[in-house]
Amino acid sequence: MDLRDRAGTRVSMRDRPIGVFDSGIGGLTVVGALQKILPQEEIIYFGDTAHVPYGTKSREIIRKFSLHNARFLMKFNIKLLIVACNSSSAVALPELKRRFSVPVLGVIEPIVEKTVQICKGRIGVIATPATIESGIYQRTIRKFSRRENKNVEIFTQECPLFVPLAEEGWLENKISEQIAQRYLGFLKNKIDVLILGCTHYPLLRKVIKKAVGKRVVLIDSASETAKRAREILKERNLLAAYPSPRRGEVNKKGKIRFYVSDSPQRFKKLGKNFLQKGIGRVECIKLE
Amino acid sequence: MDLRDRAGTRVSMRDRPIGVFDSGIGGLTVVGALQKILPQEEIIYFGDTAHVPYGTKSREIIRKFSLHNARFLMKFNIKLLIVACNSSSAVALPELKRRFSVPVLGVIEPIVEKTVQICKGRIGVIATPATIESGIYQRTIRKFSRRENKNVEIFTQECPLFVPLAEEGWLENKISEQIAQRYLGFLKNKIDVLILGCTHYPLLRKVIKKAVGKRVVLIDSASETAKRAREILKERNLLAAYPSPRRGEVNKKGKIRFYVSDSPQRFKKLGKNFLQKGIGRVECIKLE
């Protein structure tokens, strides 16, 4: 099936971009994981930096912002929408799925599915206040564990200082160690898997691991969400076509375009840590 | 001069409320100081919690939000507008003064005036990235020091973790001590006055004092801004009339009405620490 893009050119369904949004820069960890396993895909990223953070805001307003972000990405004729923000995934996913015809993928189901598969029965979940209070992880874990016939015990903890800590770039110093210790010390030797329920948290992986104990498996949304995205595109025959490397041809590399609703300079500066490489042009769009 | 309020009742100019806005809860420290020295005044407080924090956002968007907040307060027929947010005061004050006919007071000039009066020549300024980058404190200090014929040296430091730390309520523990030490250790024995250039910072006064040294005088915007507000109202004969306590009558106590653009529950919960007393009804207004 072919479509025409905004300039009227015929665009194969498979060559349409993947749209990703987050409240700010955290979703770049998902983009990084996507690029690793789907390097040929074009990605449009939108960071709602005018409203960041979502994690301390209300359900109603997060839903409103999420809808606005999704509408912006739809203008690019995307083939898949990834909600790379836990707070949005927690409260806005059903509405986004109802409103748009393209597949919509959040960061919560992929990570929970993986967790329930590998866990021995004791799961920890850390996230922002909004995500924990929404109860979404707790509900989703119970849903998948019933399906797998597993008994699980769930421990949750809000970690509001982790986001500013990751943005400040204090990833492994004594202060971040102590903050992790204070939030997570009670989980030590209590759990076998820990869900990092916020896209900022993978940056603090080392201090989190130290606080909960070496044997605890940390699961982050970035790689699990990227894998699920690949499955969805494959099922629908929507993976971007690219020449086989075995024929000696150079792979087509998917471009990433970055949009934000405020402070492109700050996004560029902080985003490097999250994407684990430099960020090119960032365009700032006006709020409606 | 008398006016009519929205219900058509005649309202004396002096009995009109003072309007105060901030990006969130920080401005409540200013409200607390106002209530101490002007207990008879009615106050309308607006916290733009849908957009908090301002300190990491761009000048353009802070200006836009500030204008929106001021317009909301103008509906209450206020006699004085206090911009109890450093980021807004840094970038939006001239425009607000131009657009509205009531006097507009920011938190920066009062604190700088006091600082330059008492300092011996070495001033430290701590604030959010937006405020420091705006250069407003540096420019205002130079303006007042020229006027007072004083030579001053200025040291600045951004402290982005102080706001989430204050909101988390970690005001005097080891972690907040170490964060203060890390940000401010270089100022020890280097300055004689330190400006707390963010309305959240007074809550961290103890650990800040410990980091910069006992002899350093800390100046916060709350009490200086409240004093300047009293001067402005007095000059214009706008102080709310109330019976003299010497006659044995009970003083009229000014009410405070609280409005936010999101999460009234969170505002109530966190606001207590900032106002240093319980917060009653908080109304959530819809964003336009």
Strand runs of chain A, count: 12
The sequence of SSEs of chain A as H and E is: EEEHEHEHEHEHHEHHEHEHEHE
Structural class designation of chain A: alpha/beta
Instruction: Give the C-alpha Rg of chain A.
Output: 19 Å
> Which percent range describes the beta-strand content of chain A?
15-25%
Work out the helix count of chain A: 11
Q: Could you state the oligomeric state of the chains shown? A: homodimer
Uncertain segments of chain A are: none
Number of domains of chain A: 2
Sheet having the most strands of chain A: 6 strands, parallel
Helicity level of chain A? 40-55%
> What would the principal axes of the Cα set say about the shape of chain A?
globular
Describe the structure in your own words:
The structure is a homodimer of 288-residue chains. The first copy, chain A, is an alpha/beta fold and 288 residues long. The first copy, chain A, has two domains: 2-106 and 223-284, 3-Layer(aba) Sandwich (Rossmann fold); 109-221, Rossmann fold, CATH 3.40.50.1860. Helices cover 42% and strands 18% of the residues of chain A. Chain A is built from eleven helices and twelve strands. Chain A has helices at residues 28-37, 59-74, 86-99, 108-118, 129-134, 136-147, 162-168, 174-184, 205-212, 221-235, 264-275; strands at residues 2-4, 10-12, 18-22, 43-47, 80-83, 104-106, 122-127, 153-158, 193-196, 217-220, 256-260, 282-284. In chain A, the strands form three sheets. In chain A, strands 6-5-3-4-11-12 form a six-stranded parallel β-sheet, sandwiched between helices. In chain A, strands 8-7-9-10 form a four-stranded parallel β-sheet, sandwiched between helices. In chain A, strands 1-2 form a two-stranded antiparallel ribbon. In chain A, helix 4 (108-118) packs across helix 10 (221-235). In chain A, 50% of the residues are buried. The A-B interface holds A 49-52, 56-58, 60-61, 64, 129, 160-161, 163-165, 167-168, 170, 174-175, 178-179, 182, 262-263, 266, 287 and B 49-52, 56-58, 60-61, 160-161, 163-165, 167-168, 170, 174-175, 178-179, 182, 262-263, 266, 287.
